[in-house]
Amino acid sequence: MSVWARTIVMTVAIVGALPGQSWAQGDSSYNPHGELDIDCGACHTSEAWTPAKAVFDFDHDDQTDFALDGLHEEALCVSCHLDLRFDEPKVSKLQCSSCHVDVHLGNLSDNCISCHTAFSFTDVPGVMVHMQTNFPLTGAHLQISCEACHATDAGGAFTTLNIDCFSCHDQEYFAAQMPDHAAANFPKDCERCHDTLAWMHAVLDHVGLSGFELIGAHRRMECTSCHIPPQLDLIYFPTDERDCIACHQSEFQIAHASGSVPTTCLDCHTNDTWEGAAFDHAEIANGYELVDAHAELDCTACHIEPGFQLIVTPVDQNDCFACHFVEYLDNHRETGTPTTCLECHNQLDWADVEENGGSE
Questions:
Q1: Rounded-to-integer distance, Cα 237 and Cα 234, Å
Q2: Is 248 helix (H, G, I), strand (E, B) or coil?
Q3: CB under 8 Å to 212, separation ≥6 — which residues?
Q4: Residue 347 falls inside a structural domain
Q5: What whole-number distance in Å separates Cα of residue 98 and Cα of residue 102?
Q6: Do 229 and 177 form a contact (C-beta atoms < 8 A)?
Q7: Peptide linkage before 306 cis (omega within 30 of 0)
Q8: Within this chain, do residues 2 and 84 fall inside the same structural domain, yes or no?
Q9: What pTM does this model have?
Q10: What are phi and psi of 350, to 5 degrees?
């Protein structure tokens, strides 16, 4: 016997209608199914109230305010209609809690379909749902189970939790030894240095904490290169990231032992490497500008390492004789040629000579 047939039998038992007797023979104003705008012939025949039609001419989706979709389509009528009053319950698709127990205990939205569907309560896009909260899941949080955070929320209660990192990761804070967060009294707003990918993937705002910006090779160094664990006391005390000499005094002494080179290291070097120094020679060497062939010379052609003392001391870049007196003596010892070499020569090549306005 179909569900609707059983329902009609219940109607006869309750109301007292006999087979073959129509409601027109009794009180025609009474409908045991309640106030429905549905023709009786949709379910019954004119011969008798029972049995009901095997196939109803009634569309629950179109003729009521509650379309049957998902598992509702498979539910028995008596699952929702507990008696013959089919106009009850009066609920809409947004009033799930009228029939279903709120396992979240009111901690989440009462709009169930924002997370659930009519096909399954458990088929929930948890990550997307969590994105609607004030704690979107990112990084490693995407890999853990709900119970890892909602440990006491049995049955899916999911109470609101403290979203501060320290509230969940206080053990990691006190266990950290390099550096010792507790001993150094590090702030407990963990996101200042860490992100959700991993604790070891720290993104320290070094300039915000110390005023010293980590740039170039400094970004790749271990903390212990400049700090003493566990409190991370400083080994050196630079004024800022341009004060190289405060940390690199030994390198300066090895390379520039004469002391004639200024300690403003970044005039020649970069924060990326000591090698490949590039500098303004004229600014450092009292106006002596490296031009033409001089620009291609190795430093040791004019300087003695490691202190870079000068081999000779020309007045300026036009004082060729100070450095090239040997060449002068070889070519002009007996001619009395003046030592103002640039009147005939240029700084590209000694052999390219112009004499008395003409070339040789």
A1: 7
A2: coil
A3: 206, 238, 240, 241
A4: yes
A5: 9
A6: yes
A7: yes
A8: yes
A9: 0.43
A10: -60, -35
Write the DSSP assignment of 37-92 as a string of letters.
-S-GGGT--SS-SSSPPSS-S--HHHHSSS---GGGGGS-GGGT--SS-TT-----
Single-letter amino acid, residue 101: V
Question: Residue 342: how many CA atoms within 13 Å on its side-chain side?
Answer: 8
Question: For the chain, how many structural domains are there in total?
Answer: 5
SS (H, E, C) 302-323: CEECCCCEECCCCCCCCCHHHH
Written as tens digits, the pLDDT of the chain (360 aa) is 444 444 444 444 334 343 333 344 445 567 888 888 888 898 899 888 888 888 888 888 888 888 888 899 888 888 888 888 888 888 877 788 888 888 888 888 888 888 888 888 888 888 888 888 889 999 999 988 888 888 888 778 888 889 999 999 999 999 987 778 888 788 898 888 888 888 876 767 788 778 899 889 998 888 889 988 777 789 999 999 999 999 999 988 888 876 667 788 988 899 998 888 877 888 778 888 888 999 888 888 898 876 678 899 998 889 999 999 998 998 888 888 899 999 899 988 888 887 643 333
CA distance 69 to 71: 6
Cα 167 from Cα 159, distance rounded (Å) = 15
Both tokens of 119, joined, read: 């096909």
Q: Are residues 2 and 53 in the same domain?
A: yes
Six token digits for residue 149 = 């955070």
Neighbours of 8 (CB within 10 A): 21
Coil vs helix vs strand at 179? coil
Is 185:232 a contact under the CB 8 Å cutoff?
Answer: no
Domain encompassing residue 287:
244-310
Q: Give the separation between CA 228 and CA 115, rounded to whole angstroms.
A: 51
- C-alpha span between 280 and 289 (Å, rounded): 8
At 146 the three-state DSSP class reads helix
Q: Looking at the structure, do residues 192 and 275 belong to the same domain, yes or no? A: no
Q: 358: phi > 0 → left, psi -120 to 50 → alpha, else beta; which? A: beta
